[in-house]
Amino acid sequence: MFTSRGPTLRELAVQALSSVERGYDLLAPKFDLTPFRTPDRILDETAEALRPLGPFRDGLDVCCGTGAGGRVLRALCRERAVGVDFSAGMLHEARRAHPGAVLVRADARALPFRPVFDLAVSFGAFGHFLPRERPGLFAQVHSALLPGGVFAFPVGAPPHFGTLPYWAMLGFDTVMRVRNRVWRPGFVMYYRTFPLVEVLAELRRTGFDVELTPLEGLGRRPDGTPRCAVVVARRRA
């Protein structure tokens, strides 16, 4: 899962025992060498799924990290592509990788934007928000979008019960819950706290019309269900 140039086990342990912000500041220089970085294939498939919904003018990458999601915005938006993240270390790496990118340090739970964007995306960040925080997060994105603007993010199919990925995700979340009971500061990162049915309902309550589009380029599982889909939430006029 990790290359020889990626973070060492000790570095990962230090990150896991830090706060979320400090942990990502520490991990930032090697983040793109880890499996936590969203693969280009998912980014490109997401861009292709969103292309027919455009044209878009201004885009926002929520929790942009080192800037990988900017790849989608640059492919779809004619004017600005803005990234926002609360980790100074991740933004530093994003500026190094993407000179001239518009990057803002801010908490996604308190976005400093007026409704000026017609597209917002996010990749791989929702595990850092507790379920009780999701409605507020979605409301912040909603407030940054123009009427009719689109909020989109990919979601992978949940692993089937009893499979190795199922037990791996359950084990990781269990370890993190124990860690957060006995160690401070907390590090919020869970894989099983983002159930799609609840998420879609929360988006609708926030004021979005929601669709789910399979990313066919990523294939289907043996039972015929898509391996990945993109949630397309459009702010109601």
Explain the overall architecture.
- This protein has 237 residues and is α/β, with parallel strands linked by helices.
- The chain has one domain (39-235): Rossmann fold, CATH 3.40.50.150.
- Helices cover 36% and strands 19% of the residues.
- The protein has 8 helices and 7 strands.
- It has helices at residues 9-16, 20-27, 40-50, 70-76, 88-97, 134-144, 164-182, 196-206; strands at residues 59-62, 81-85, 102-105, 117-121, 145-156, 208-214, 228-235.
- Strands 3-2-1-4-5-7-6 form a 7-stranded mixed sheet, sandwiched between helices.
- Helix 1 packs antiparallel against helix 2 (20-27), helix 3 packs parallel to helix 4 (70-76) and helix 6 (134-144) crosses helix 8 (196-206).
- The longest helix has 19 residues, at 164-182.
- It is globular.
- It comes from Streptomyces spongiicola.
- Residues 60-149 form the Methyltransferase domain.
- Keywords: Methyltransferase, Transferase.
